[in-house]
Specification:
This protein is an alpha+beta fold. About 20% of the residues lie in helices and about 35% in strands. Helix 2 crosses helix 7.
């Protein structure tokens, strides 16, 4: 899809007014940055920022067999989700490869799935192909929902000025329908930055109103709009995986470090037998975190060497604005995947020494106080 045919979110005119750098991403015209990736990154870490993430997909699943259907289609245990709670999960192929990592919300009248922008059509078709003949309704609500995220240690201060609800009542990975700036909407507390924050799910026709209200409410904290560039560096500092980079259908959850969202004991689900076999035979590679020991900027696709032999490649990489060093993720042989193991990352034909470290890279995120 070209820039000319890309979908514009309901916040598009706001991005234009702020002279955002807009590019096509996953079929949407999205802001990569406004002022710059580094200042936007630091604004979220130190205070608060706001993100247009309307490119994310939302599916509604309802009906008397909706729970049964989602138990079959996801790896985590849907029975553990309480009303208004969210659960991190994934969908996998019959062979155990990751189709997408998702959020599953349990709402009073339905379940809501939040999926990655690049996988909306693929995920919808996958779910649709497994629908039973009756008892389950599946609806793609993506184009009807605008999504604004407020992230940072001051996020609650900002949102509290826009609602009468005591936001301490919304715990980490929970949600509720509340009034924000006089408009009714679903508000959740998850995020993908390592900082405290909220996601506001709203109708398209009130998006611009909420954008302006959020900027006004956050004036004291110097809230700024944040583009996808800083969203990427923020998530990488936390070792939050990005589908298409750090996991694909070529990777299973155990290799990706997502074994904790696989609940084999819950009973049958798509791909379960494959995962049992993989777990029994053992994985051969693992996704790890590395830091460069010399100055450099690791990027996706850079080769990883050990003892003068290529053993993997970088799946995500950046120069960390908070740590002031190059960091990244890579799949390496399991036997050399423990922290402290050293490698060379080839950057511009030059081997740069790197060491494996325990995640996350950034350990001071405000979200720790919510867990």
């Amino acid at each position: 899809m070209s820039r000319e045919t890309a979908i514009k979110t309901a916040f598009y005119n706001k991005h234009l007014l702020l002279h955002a750098k807009l590019v096509e991403f996953a079929g949407y015209l999205m802001p990569i940055y406004y002022e710059g990736i580094v200042p936007e990154h630091r604004a979220v870490r130190n205070s608060v920022g706001m993100f247009d993430i309307s490119h994310m997909g939302e599916f509604y699943v309802k009906g008397p067999r909706a729970f049964e259907f989602l138990q079959k289609m996801t790896t985590n245990d849907v029975s553990k989700i309480e009303m208004w709670q969210a659960q991190y999960s994934c969908m996998i192929t019959d062979k155990g490869g990751i189709i997408d990592d998702i959020l599953v919300y349990r709402l009073p009248d339905k379940f809501m799935l939040v999926v990655n922008a690049s996988n909306i059509d693929k995920d919808y078709n996958w779910l649709k192909s497994h629908l039973p003949h009756d008892g389950v309704e599946l609806f793609n609500a993506t184009r009807e929902v605008s999504l604004l995220a407020i992230q940072g240690p001051k996020a609650q201060d900002v949102l509290s000025r826009m609602t009468n609800l005591d936001l301490d009542n919304i715990e980490y990975y929970w949600s509720h329908v509340i009034d924000v700036a006089g408009e009714r909407m679903l508000v959740s507390r998850t995020g993908y930055t390592g900082e405290d924050g909220f996601e506001l799910y709203m109708k398209n026709n009130i998006a611009e109103k909420l954008w302006d209200a959020t900027l006004e409410a956050g004036e004291k904290e110097n809230i700024v709009p944040i583009g996808l560039g800083a969203r990427d560096t923020l998530r990488l500092e936390m070792k939050y995986m990005l589908y298409g980079n750090d996991m694909t259908e070529e990777n299973n959850p155990y290799e990706a470090g997502l074994g904790w969202i696989v609940k084999l004991e819950k009973g049958d689900f798509v791909g379960r037998e494959a995962l049992i076999e993989i777990k029994t035979s053992g994985i051969k590679k693992r996704c790890v975190c590395f830091e460069l020991l010399d100055r450099g900027f690791p990027r996706q696709g850079h080769k990883v060497f050990r003892d003068n032999r290529e053993v993997g490649e970088v799946t995500s990489g950046t120069f960390s604005p908070m740590l002031n060093k190059g960091i990244g993720l890579a799949y390496v042989p399991k036997e050399w995947s423990k922290s402290g193991n050293e490698y060379d990352v080839i950057i511009r034909n030059t081997p740069i020494p790197a060491v494996l470290v325990k995640p996350p890279f950034w350990e001071k995120g405000s979200i720790k106080s919510r867990k």
